[in-house]
Every structure is written in C-alpha cells, then in structure tokens.
Write a structure and sequence with these properties.
alpha/beta; 6-stranded parallel β-sheet; 19 strands; binds 2-acetamido-2-deoxy-beta-D-glucopyranose
C-alpha cells in the first residue's frame, strides 16, 4: 500500500479510537464502554482520498503568478502577452494540471504550453485536437523527475512528500486557462513562507516592439538569460507594431497597448479619459487582475518598428515621454526603469526623453552590439551589473552571476533623493493623471520642462570592463 495511504488509514483509526474512548468516557454508558465500536459503520466519505486537488483559490500560498492574469470564476486566464506564467509549489510525484479551453468555439489544434519542473528545461506539452464548443476540460500529467534513492527512501520512511516547483508558461495563441493541480494526497500546511520567498525573486518587465520577423520570445537571449538567472519575467512585446501610434493611425501603438490586459487591434479604445475605460484596461480597474508581484525592474527597448516606418524623431520622443510619464506615475511608481539606447535608433530623442523626465529612478542604458558573446552576454552583464545588485539579499546573486560582475554594482547612482522623487511625482501626477485626454497640454508642459532641464543624466555605460 502507498505509505501515505497507510499512514492516513492508521491515523484515521487512531483518531476514531481516541474520539470513541472520549465519547464513551463522557457518555458513561456502561454497555458501550465495553464495545465502543459495536455499531460503527465505515462510510466511504470518511476514507482519506488518494489525491488532493489544489487551486489558487483553495491554496493561494502555493501559486505565484507572473504577468497579467484574470480570474473568471474558478478559471485563471493568462493574458496573451508572451511569456505569461504561473509557478506552483507541489508535493509528491503526481502532478496533473487541469486546464480549460481558451476559446469559446471552433476546433482547436496544437494547443500547447511550456512546463518546467524544478527550474529544469521547458517542455512543450501539446493537447489533442478538440472542439472548443463542447467546453472541454483537460487534465495532463507532468512528469516529475525521479528522486535519487537516498532522498526517496528518507521520504518514504518519514512519510514526507518531497516538494517540487512547477512552472507553466502560457503561449499567446492559446492562453493558459488554469483550474488547478491534482497531487498525491497530503495534508498541506499552507505557510505563507513559500509565497513570501517567491515575492523576493527579482521580477523584470520587458517592454519592446519587435520587427514582424523577429524570433519568438522563447528563442531570444533576453528570455533565456533571465531564466538562467532565475528571474521572474513578464513581457509586453508586440511584433510588427510601432511604439508610437504614428505608423497606423487606426491601430494603437505599443505605448497604448501597454495599458491593456492583452494586445489588441485598437478597437475599442477610449478617446477621452472621461469615457469608461474598456474592460480590458489594466490599471485602475474595478475588477483587478489576479494578484501577482509588481515588477521592481522595467526595461524599455522600443522604436524598431517606428524606425522602419520612418516615424519622425519628435513624434517618437513625445510618445516616449508620455509613456514614461505613465509608467512613473500610474503603472510602475515603485520600479527602477531602464531605457535601452541602441545605436542608430532615435538616440538623441531617447536620451532627451529620459532627461526631460527628471526622475531619479529612470535610467538610460547603452546597448553595446559589438560586445563579445552577443546579445546573451550583453543581457547577462546588464542584469548582473545593474539589476541584481539591487535585488533582495536572499536572492543568490553571486552564485548565479559569478564574481565577474561584482565590481559593476551600481548602488550609488540608483539611490536618488527621496524628496526630489516626491516632488517630481507631485508635479507629474497632476499632468499625467488623465494622460490620454490631455495629451496636448502635457506636451506643452514637457516642452517647458525641457527648456530648463540641466539635471545630470543618469546615463551610464552598461558595460565597463
Ligand atoms: C463542435 O461541437 C458543437 C457542440 O457540440 C457542435 O454543434 C459542432 O458541430 C462541433 N463541431 C465539429 C466540427 O465537430
Ligand atoms: C518556442 O516556442 C515555439 C512555439 O511558439 C515552439 O515550437 C518551440 O519548441 C519553442 N522553443 C523552445 C526553445 O522552447
């Protein structure tokens, strides 16, 4: 018999015996004292089941969401931004994930997502073709790697189930609609410790407009380096869409799309902040998103499509200013924000937009395309020298980065004066509060600011060997 079941049945008997004797003692009925179990009938409902089902609702401290998620009754729906993921703490060797079809109707072929166990490689899991009109629910098995003998024997003798970390990454075409996970039966003590530790893992939000033919996110260096460094990563990345709204007036640019739960085609959109926000608007929602961790680092790498469509420099700069203002005031007021400056792509405009914000937690970072090791080496250096030194001390920074990057720690220039931050926020707050409705006014205001902005820029080379 399964040791857990064995133990559970024994426990059940022990409890029953104890209760029986207590009741018998209290009742003081002599005939029952002799045979306390005379009339006991075991009903099936009292047997401990072999499996346990956990959901983010029943076990909120076992699930950690990254990126934008919504809850619809018992279903947790990932947005269609790439790389949206959920991490769960499970126990034992059984793990069956229960999901719902992401669309309402039609035949769905090749619905898949990526799964990784204990920080292992991501495996592609594909569901069989199904008819979404039938509202199907799927359960699929995740293989949990076998433990080595000493660990599993120790676990057996002590009746303990070994914990594992499961990470499921949604695929934008078929967003993950998670219901829950089935485990070996166990009594799960729901400490908040695990979730607390998860929340200390540095989280980075990466905002970028990629050219239409750019590779998928899961093949890029930026994604894999962040995985290697065990960062939490969320992406607002669109392919073939300009950042500013100038290329296709009928469509929203990425700067505007950022505010939405998922990318969209520009309709419907609020013309004016006095109009009701569309239900998919992420910030200031009545119906908030599934609580995840706010990213404490934001990386903005935009302008590729604008450049390809010859968007004028001033237009680009104004879009970037408005966007950064929105980030600072509305969306990510607590974050350190890094804007990538790439040679040949609106360099002056990008730098000017950053300086004009006069905000100490906003930084320009020069991308060095000639660096040996390419994109991966550059990103690792960026994370290890700029971001991770600022992470929670419990994060194993030295172990994951190696020692090569330590001297690049940039603690000093990051710590902007608090008073100044508050001042800037107050000033900007009034203007940016109703960002889209008062865009013209805002531009005039920024123009004024730029007139006397001589603050030292926080511009710094990312790579100083
Ligand atoms: C899918 O299911 C619906 C509802 O059961 C049915 O009406 C429809 O014909 C099915 N579609 C196909 C292609 O089987
Ligand atoms: C990346 O995702 C694609 C589907 O978008 C998948 O076919 C491919 O196997 C994935 N590659 C890796 C390295 O995970």
């Amino acid at each position: 018999m399964n040791p857990v079941k064995h133990f559970a049945v024994l426990l059940f008997f022990a409890v029953l015996l104890f209760c029986g004797s207590v009741m018998a003692a209290e009742d003081k009925k002599p005939e029952e004292e002799e045979k306390p179990f005379k009339n006991a009938v075991f009903q099936e409902q009292y047997f401990v089941k072999d499996e346990a089902f956990i959901t983010p609702r029943t076990h909120p401290y076992l699930f950690s969401f990254t990126g934008r998620w919504m809850r619809r009754r018992e279903v947790y729906q990932a947005s269609t931004w790439p790389g949206t993921s959920v991490t769960a703490l499970i126990y034992g060797q059984t793990c069956r994930v229960k999901v719902k079809a992401p669309v309402k109707e039609g035949i769905v072929e090749g619905h898949y997502f990526l799964a990784s166990v204990d920080n292992g490689p991501q495996l592609l899991l594909t569901l069989p073709t199904y008819n979404a009109s039938e509202n199907p629910v799927f359960e699929f098995n995740l293989d949990i790697p076998q433990l080595d003998d000493t660990v599993s024997n120790a676990a057996k003798t002590s009746n303990v189930l070994i914990p594992h970390i499961v990470e499921l990454t949604s695929e934008p075409n078929y967003p993950l609609n998670l219901i829950g996970i089935t485990l070996d039966n166990t009594i799960i003590r729901q400490g908040r410790d695990w979730l607390k530790r998860q929340n200390k893992i540095p989280t980075i939000e990466y905002i970028s407009d990629k050219l239409a033919d750019a590779p998928a996110l899961n093949t890029t260096a930026v994604y894999h380096v962040a995985r290697e460094l065990r960062l939490r990563q969320e992406y607002v990345v669109a392919h073939g869409k300009c950042f500013s709204p100038e290329c296709k007036r009928s469509q929203a640019g990425l700067a505007e799309q950022y505010n939405y739960l998922s990318p969209f085609d520009g309709n419907p959109r609020p013309q004016d902040a006095r109009e009701a926000m569309p239900s998919k608007f992420v910030f200031h929602r009545d119906d908030p998103l599934v609580e995840g961790k706010e990213p404490e680092f934001v990386m903005v790498d935009v302008g590729d499509n604008d450049l390809a469509h010859n968007v004028n420099g001033l237009e680009f700069m104004q879009s970037l200013q408005a966007f950064l203002g929105n980030l600072i005031v509305n969306a990510r007021p607590e974050a350190e924000i890094f804007v990538l400056v790439r040679a040949g792509r609106y360099v002056t405009e990008t730098e000017d937009a950053i300086v004009s914000m006069r905000y100490p937690h906003l930084h320009a970072v020069k991308y060095d395309e000639r660096r040996a090791g390419g994109d991966a080496a550059w990103h690792k250096s960026f994370y290890c020298s700029y971001i991770l030194p600022l992470a929670d001390p419990s994060y194993p920074y030295r172990e994951l980065c190696g020692t090569a990057y330590e001297q690049l720690s940039v603690g000093s220039h990051m710590t902007g004066s608090f008073g100044k931050t508050v001042l800037v926020l107050l000033v900007l707050g009034g203007v940016f509060g109703t960002l889209y409705s008062r865009r013209r006014q805002l531009m005039a205001y920024i123009g004024q600011l730029r007139g006397y902005s001589n603050v030292s820029t926080t511009d710094k080379e990312a790579v100083e060997n």
